[in-house]
Amino acid sequence: MWTAVGLMLLWRASIWLSSMEGSLAMGLVGLSVVLMVAFYAVMFRKTVQKNIARLASLPERVCLFAFNSRRGYALILFMIVLGITLRHSPIPRPYLAVVYTTMGGTLLLSSFHFYHRFWNERIGG
């Protein structure tokens, strides 16, 4: 899920960035990368580790929706509403491109923790 949402946000930001002048777009991408690394290091790495630990503690067979906590679902709902609100706001697209690229990149980068854990648990063994 983190990968899909991250890619969707990056795709939407790329559409906005592609309509901008090249050096401005590259500057915004650079800013987004700096913010992405900061968000990942400060918040998302810990969140992913907590999620992985929670998932590892679940029994073998659980409800399909157990992959996320109740708090996680509340956060997802908040993020969806925030994204829709931002997209329909008068905020200029260059600013939104930074927000979307930062969040999309952070989610995509963080999702690799799940793949790594899956690889170690299921395949690497």
Quick summary of this structure?
This protein is mostly helical. It is built from 4 helices and no strands.
Describe this structure in words.
By secondary structure, the chain is mostly helical. It has one domain (2-123). The chain is built from four helices and no strands. The protein has helices spanning 2-18, 22-57, 70-87, 93-123. Helix 1 (2-18) packs antiparallel against helix 4 (93-123) and helix 2 runs parallel beside helix 4. It starts with a helix and ends with a helix. The model has no long low-confidence stretch (mean pLDDT 87).
What is the strand and helix layout of this fold?
Blueprint: H1 2-18, H2 22-57, H3 70-87, H4 93-123
Helix pairs in contact: 1-4, 2-4
Structural class: mainly alpha
Task: Tell me how many strands there are.
Answer: 0
Shape: elongated
Average of pLDDT: 87
